């Protein structure tokens, strides 16, 4: 990669040029947050930034009204997709830092834009809304958008910790609807069949199941409908659960046990039960040793210290992308304080100078990893080999 240093210098000069605009965009989104699937202005602001940087932008994209794709296609020498997020959380705004790391991906794309003619590759910056709910990456991945991508990558804003080998849990969101028969709870309760009893017994069954599942599995839920009034035997009760596991194969096996528990609870209470997904299903992040080693080398090159991933703590739709192509989502600290995601403190941290510095630093890291990917066909081949090897693994 004899041209790497020369091209990286040009990339970083362009990042410096666009950095004030990227920081202003991040702060603008923080001041004007839009929740999942309502990111109409945020997505258009992203699109305008990319157009100024020389990208051809499709918006809406992939049948999703708040998605977009910026593209500079100059040949078949590799395809890299930078992923951008920009949805906020209800009431507390950008408490997951999407304003910062969304702009980070845009700035990396702007840095790479002037060298794409020489690289003769295909660069995407793909706007992926609704990560906090029905992650758009899930729909895009299921439709095959990323199947021919050599590397999809983004960096996620973090609290005090920085790490490269991010892990997330596979997750299914299931709603269980129990149906019974209404009756007067005092006058003729024997005529009723209590749907809430079915849902409550199901909760007990899940709690008993916890004794016999792997310790890394997570099962957590609520009853969000349990009856209309105390003097009416509940005719309908609805429970919603998130089920999570480090492996999709393990989660699928768990769900067969969960649904049998629901059927048993319904049978015991003489009610009926049906279930369905109320959100799209998230896959775990599939490791890619070659890609993760590449990114660790880039972090070291830029003297960015990093530690081990503290363990899978939640779910991300980047997992679904990682099942279709090599994918990365390191976490980069934007504050020296140990703020947790989804807190007002973290939202406030995203507009501080420290977060602005992290935004520019993260853009340099992403651009360098993309540049190495375009320049090295052997690297792309090894990432694909690792991807195929990991995809074949089944964990029960």
Number of E-state strands? 12
What is the overall number of helices? 12
Q: Could you describe the largest sheet, including whether it forms a barrel?
A: 6 strands, mixed
CATH architecture of the largest domain: 3-Layer(aba) Sandwich
CATH topology of the largest domain: Aminopeptidase
CATH class of the largest domain: Alpha Beta
Strand arrangement in the largest pleated sheet: 1-2-4-3-5-11
Q: Could you say how many structural domains there are in total? A: 2
> Percent range for helical residues?
40-55%
Quick recap of the structure?
The protein has helices at 4-31, 40-52, 98-112, 116-119, 136-142, 195-209, 248-268, 289-301, 318-322, 344-349, 353-375, 377-391, and strands at residues 56-58, 68-73, 79-84, 122-127, 151-153, 156-158, 170-179, 218-225, 236-245, 272-277, 327-328, 331-333. It has 396 residues and is α/β, with parallel strands linked by helices.
């Amino acid at each position: 990669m004899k041209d790497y240093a020369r091209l990286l210098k040009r990339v970083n000069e362009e990042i410096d040029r666009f950095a004030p605009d990227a920081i202003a965009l991040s702060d603008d989104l923080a001041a004007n947050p839009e929740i999942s699937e309502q990111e109409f202005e945020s997505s258009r602001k992203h699109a305008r930034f990319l157009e100024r940087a020389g990208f051809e932008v499709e918006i809406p994209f992939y049948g999703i009204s708040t998605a977009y794709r910026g593209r500079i296609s100059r040949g078949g020498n590799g395809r890299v997709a930078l992923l951008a997020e920009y949805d906020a959380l209800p009431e507390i705004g950008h408490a997951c830092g999407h304003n910062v790391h969304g702009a980070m991906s845009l700035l990396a794309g702007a840095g790479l834009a002037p060298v794409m003619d020489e690289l003769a590759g295909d660069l995407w910056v793909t706007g992926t809304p609704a990560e906090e709910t029905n992650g758009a990456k899930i729909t895009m991945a299921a439709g095959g958008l990323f199947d021919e991508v050599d590397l999809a990558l983004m960096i996620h804003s973090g609290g005090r910790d920085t790490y490269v080998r991010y892990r997330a849990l596979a997750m299914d969101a299931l709603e269980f609807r129990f149906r019974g028969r209404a009756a007067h709870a005092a006058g003729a309760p024997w005529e009723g069949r209590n749907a809430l009893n079915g849902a409550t017994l199901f909760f007990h069954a899940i709690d008993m199941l916890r004794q016999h599942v792997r310790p890394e599995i997570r099962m957590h839920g609520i009853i969000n409908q349990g009856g209309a009034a105390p003097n009416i035997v509940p005719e309908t009760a609805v429970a919603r659960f998130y089920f999570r596991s480090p492996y999709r194969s393990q989660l699928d096996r768990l769900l067969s046990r969960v649904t049998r528990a629901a059927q048993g609870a319904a049978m015991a209470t003489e009610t009926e039960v049906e279930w369905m997904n109320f959100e799209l299903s998230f896959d775990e992040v599939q490791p890619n040793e070659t890609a993760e080693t590449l990114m660790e080398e880039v972090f070291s090159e830029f003297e960015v210290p990093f530690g081990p991933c503290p363990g899978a703590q939640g779910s991300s739709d980047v997992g679904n992308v990682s099942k279709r192509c090599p994918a990365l989502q390191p976490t980069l600290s934007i504050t020296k304080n140990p703020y947790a995601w989804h807190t007002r403190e973290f939202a406030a941290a995203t507009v501080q100078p420290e977060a602005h510095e992290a935004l520019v630093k993260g853009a340099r890291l992403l651009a360098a990893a993309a540049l190495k990917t375009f320049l090295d066909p052997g690297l792309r081949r090894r990432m694909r080999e690792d991807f195929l090897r990991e995809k074949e693994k089944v964990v029960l």
